[in-house]
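Re: that chain you flagged

S.,

Sorry for the slow reply, it's been a week of failed gels. I finally had a moment to sit down with the sequence you sent. For the record, here it is as I used it:
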Amino acid sequence: MAHILTAVIGSGVLSLAWSVAQLGWVGGPAAMVFFAGVTAVQSTLIADCYISHDPERGVVRNRSYVDAVRLYLGTYGQPSIVDDLPFFLDGIFDEMIIDRSSV
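Prediction finished late last night. Pasting the structure tokens below so you have them in one place:
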């Protein structure tokens, strides 16, 4: 049963309570409040990118995150899959190590 639960939810979520408990009564809630603030700032920044005030085209509604990135950064030097591959593989290997250590 534990293996099914780990596969469905993920070991990162299951170890979150243990990680917060290791920080103690002061550090645990402080870390939760800190990351809640980071999440609030990030969501505000992403929401601000939905409608952009472009000096050349006026008010622009970005229908996707990619449209907002193209508006702010332009189309020159768009990242390709080769540029993102090391980060993708790093995430896969990290998750594999975490999963194997929790089994």
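What I noticed first: The chain has one domain: 2-102.

Talk soon,
D.
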